[in-house]
Amino acid sequence: MNTGNLRGTRYWAANLVAALIVLVLLGLHLGMFHLDGLLRQITSAWSRPMTWNRVVERGESGWFTASYVLLLGMALFHGLYGVHTILTERWCSPRASARIATGCWLVGIALFAVGTATVLVFHFGLTGE
Amino acid sequence: MESIPSPPNRLGLLGWLGGGRRGIEAYVFLCQRVSGVVLLLYLSIHVFLTGARLFGPEAWDRLCKMTHLFGYHYFEYLVFAAFAFHAFNGIRLVIIEFGFGLGRPERPVYPYRGSTHKQRPLMIAMMVLTAVLIAAGGFELVRFPH
Amino acid sequence: MKDRETVTFRVQRYEPGRDAKPVWADFPVAVQAGMTVLDGLLQIRQQLDATLAWRFSCRMGLCGSCGMMINGKPGLACNTQVHDVARKTLRLAPLANFPVVRDLVADLRTMFAAHAELKPFLVRDDKAGIEPGAAEFLQSPEELLKFLQFSYCIKCGACMAACPTMALGAGFLGPMPLTAAHRYNADSRDQGFALRKPALAGPRGAHHCHYAGECTRVCPKGVDPARAVQLARRDLLLDLLRLKRRRPAPAPVAEPPAGEHKAPIEAPPFTARAD
């Protein structure tokens, strides 16, 4: 009897893992950028995150660079998995499903490429500044 | 048997609303979908906008000023709220996914109290946490504007 | 409260192939306390319009034939009292998310096709174990409780009409078939999980349930399909992680003594009632 795992469950499990990673990384990211005023009340060492110096600091940090790339990848996977789910609930023929999946992958790869290129170019100082 | 030339009679997107007749979980499901789509759209915009840092400090500062001009930071607050909701409700869904908080299958005795009732305290707890985070973000927006 | 009140039954009339689109028809129905929606429909048929079509059989919430949208919510006409849902106007429409045969009759074949796809019957590795009359299986009350709730399903289709995922399109097998699949997966006598898995985890499978809970809210038998589908999803995840316990099927209780093998009980021949 077939006891192998099927693609649907594998994708769903990957989606859950991605969600967990996004939860942690995006939680930290949004906390840092949207609750910075409150954080400054706790620690005076917390300076404004949107100033150019802070942007450069983060861009040069390997940890930040890696976390940005990971967050972008996981967020795109989680988000586009959701969009794929919604669209295949509406259009579910094998042909339509294949097109939707291809579309989601293309959009995901394109956005991931743009975002990752930005982060890496900035990190390695290739901006020509 | 001959096929029936009838439309599938689906309720469509408006069916998600159910004319206000649906249970609380159905509206939470709807908000989860809407917040998810909003977050993905924002991420797409965000990837391009933050690319401005490649063009130096002036371009970055210009972008920061411009976003305030169009009230973009208010939109960003909504995105923050969407994240808070999507994250906490998502935690609830994953907990339920693993079979926790649903109660065990039981002999149905009228009036029926299904798993939706059993998991409601969890849902309320998550919604309270969401409200706290959204309130913190709102306080930040008013008290410490960027 | 007055003994009899008139409630307007606003019924969706539609005959595909003849009518361009559904229209609403109003019928004044004299309603008294305790009267069900089904009673009202029977009154319409007897006194006002004999052409109104709907489906019913048992009149007591057992057969699942009279599922329909009652004031926008799926339910059984026979176990919904008019005064519980309406004082002046009651809107009746065929179950949503299904094609319409005529008036209030929905075509449930899509649901039964999905049901069949999920193999809603006991599957055993030992074929002899399920031969009729071959043996009995031991099952503890705890094991029974794992699936009993889900076995109360009467296939009325109310959950399918309430499901927001199904409102969008045909990309979901639906709460009823998935509940039936879990009913058997959770049965200690069954070994069919691997057989059901392709449909359960397939492109139209359990991953499209987002726990909106509407199926559970409208189920007239307290079956709780939302719980069943979540438990099915847990099984799939545990199976993926190789954490799902493989259940050895219980052995038959006792082989019948030689020479006393009972033949399967045959149903008596059907005879139409003389009256």
Please characterize this protein's 3D structure.
The complex is a heterotrimer of chains A (129), B (146) and C (275). Chain A is mostly helical. Chain A has one domain: Fumarate reductase/succinate dehydrogenase, transmembrane subunit (3 helical TM bundles of succinate and fumarate reductases, Up-down Bundle), CATH 1.20.1300. Helix content of chain A is 80%, strand content 0%. In chain A, helix 1 packs across helix 4 (62-90) and helix 4 (62-90) packs antiparallel against helix 5 (94-123). The longest helix of chain A is centred in the C-terminal third of the chain and has 30 residues, at 94-123. Helix content of chain B is 68%, strand content 0%. In chain B, helix 4 packs antiparallel against helix 6. In chain C, strand 6 and strand 7 (105-106) form a beta hairpin. In chain C, the strands form 2 sheets. Chain C has a 5-stranded mixed beta sheet. In chain C, strands 6-7 form a two-stranded antiparallel sheet. The model of chain C has no long low-confidence stretch (mean pLDDT 90). Chain C is α+β, with helices and mostly antiparallel strands and 275 residues long. In chain C, helix 3 (109-117) packs parallel to helix 7 and helix 7 crosses helix 10 (225-240). The chains are: A mainly alpha (129), B mainly alpha (146), C alpha+beta (275).
Biggest sheet of chain C: strands, sense, closure?
A: 5 strands, mixed
The Cα radius of gyration of chain C reads 22 Å
**What is the arithmetic mean of pLDDT of chain A?**
88
Q: Give the helix level of chain C as a range of percent.
A: 25-40%
- The CATH topology label of the largest domain in chain C is Fumarate Reductase Iron-sulfur Protein, Chain B, domain 2
Q: How much helix, percentage-wise, in residues of chain A?
A: over 70%
* Secondary structure tally: strands of chain C: 7
| Number of separate helices of chain A | 5
Please provide the count of β strands of chain A.
0
Q: From the 3D coordinates, which CATH architecture of chain A would you assign? A: Up-down Bundle
- Second CATH tier, the architecture of the largest domain in chain C: Orthogonal Bundle
Shape of chain C: elongated
Coarse shape of chain A: elongated
